[in-house]
Amino acid sequence: MADLVTDAIADLTAKMVTVSAIKNRAVYVYDQDDLLNAEKNLKTPCAGVLYVGMAINEQSTRREQSVLLTAQIAFIGGEFCELPNSSVKERTTKILDDIRRAVIAAPTTTTQLVWRFESEAPFEIAREAGTKLLGYVQVWTTPLIITEQFPAQ
User: Is there a domain that residue 38 lies in?
Assistant: First the structure.
């Protein structure tokens, strides 16, 4: 892997966009504000992948260090309707399930990354004219090995 973060985010994005509902409506964004700005040019449903960071994994050796890369998929389902049988809610939960299945699928042959689903939580986005967008954030992690490069002896 040339760049651990770029390769991992590209892998997660590639898996996510296999879901037909968001195939051409997914972007790599810096934060949720970037996604909200991008959403203005995208039709809902849409999604953004956010790189959150890395943390040490407990298994480390002198020559290699294991880290967990964390990323989020922020998904915007559409205008939120307060009705109990809202079609936006039903469509959103189906697409979220499709995203989970796509990301958990077998690792790609190019990266061999295995993503672990950590959590999912809803959020609402207040819009002009009193409307709201329904969104969810999924948190994903994948283990990576950082190997020290020692000079040949």
Answer: yes
